[in-house]
Amino acid sequence: MNPRSIWLIAASAVLTAGTGICRPPQKTPQVPAFFAKLQQTVAAAGKNAAPSLALVKIERDNDGASSQSPVRGMNFQRSSAASGVGGIVLTSKGHVLTQGLFRPDQDQRITVLIGENEYVARAVKADETLGMSIIKLDSAETFVPLDLSAGADLAVGEWAVVLKPTDEEFGYRKLVTPAVCQGEKEGIYREFILNEPLAAYPGSLVVNLSGQLVGLVDRGSVLAINDLRDDIQRLLTEMNGSKSLEDEKKMKGWLGAALVPVNKEFAKARNLSPSSLQVVHVAKDSPAATAGLRDGDLIIALNGKPLRLTGGSTLDYFTKSLHPRTGEKFTITALRADQKADYSGTFTRAPEPETLLAKDIGVTVSGITDSGFFSLDLATDQGVLVTDVIKGSPAANSGTIRQTLVSRYDVIIEMAGQPTPDLATFGKVLETIRHDHPPVVLVKYYRGRMTGYAGLNLALGEKDNGNKQ
Predict the structure, then answer these.
(1) pLDDT tens digits for 420-461?
(2) What is the pLDDT of residues 407-421, one digit of tens each?
(3) In the chain, helix, strand, coil percent, each to 5?
(4) CATH number of the domain at 46-242, please?
(5) 3-state DSSP call for residue 430?
(6) Which of these, 238, 277, 345, 429, could form a disulfide with 287 (CB 3.0-4.6 Å)?
(7) Which CATH code is given to the segment(s) 355-465?
(8) Is the dihedral of CA 118, 121, 125, 126 positive or negative?
């Protein structure tokens, strides 16, 4: 029986009792029978998902004290048998998706319960956008993965069932909590708000009364599986393709466009969606430029999905949804002169500017790229960008603890009275300083939009740079 029909029957019975209308007793639905039917429906809802439920526990210290959970707002106590966070089996080889950030380089012991069976696991992939991780069970067994292909959304007033796996304290039986959807919240992922407090159910699975997968519990709400699915699949793909942190760095791509959210009043006046981003600059030879994007274009969708939210939240949504990976394709839908068009391209690796270590004065500098000029909002591109300041060097010395004479992201535009518009010229000026060996060098720089000067005492660096004479 349809759950909504059950509720209507029960409500009809109560209303009829209050009107004084006489009906044959055998035709009047009984409230206890209704609740019995509801109980059966709730119990059956999570039956198919049960073999894929996992309870994840973590220990990070060796002194018997409580361990900090990777899930915000939770502590795992070793003495508590009920501690843990929910997870779901993704592959038959024992890859489990769980709430929180479990990183491969952390010193931690992870154990996972699936039913009454306990397994040791290791972290293999963490994702900041999802706030979730994939861990691998240390077992040659074949596991039952959860089918993520078919998901359902929750309507306001619709019932759902929260499924949380447990350990020996609860006899390894899953905790089943029925709840009603009170509304939907927009975000990077849509969130269904239930009438039950869910803070104690991180990572738990949520299904509807028909047993269809709805989503996963995160910080008191339910993230929609229909929004999560693509990112979970991407995480699995990245896990299979990554080998090291260096490989990850090489795989990271870039778009090469500076974007700003549109003003709500502007969008309303132009009859545009407030969930739009304006292109203020397209870097030369970038994937965005190759795809055909231009300054002034108005982005309204990414990979076929309309942008969400408004203001800065829209930009955050776009950035986190982009997932630029070298070699992967993208499609951006934009308006140009009120004409909508799709611009497709392929992510490439962001160009790395050439750097130069000026140990004499205590800085590492790089050339200013077209994209760096806009992303860092620099005052000028005629100079060199300070990317690092060496501790104890002439550039770092200032007589105070928290302040340095030259700071990271300063743009040096002049040194020893000579302009330094690019990295090559800076190098030539540096060679002149090394040859003349003045006791103090005056540096002119931009810090943000303000111009500043610093007198660098080169004697501070003589012992390390070999320039002592």
Answers:
(1) 999 999 999 999 999 998 999 999 999 999 999 999 998 875
(2) 999 999 999 999 999
(3) 25, 35, 40
(4) 2.40.10.120
(5) helix
(6) 345
(7) 2.30.42.10
(8) positive
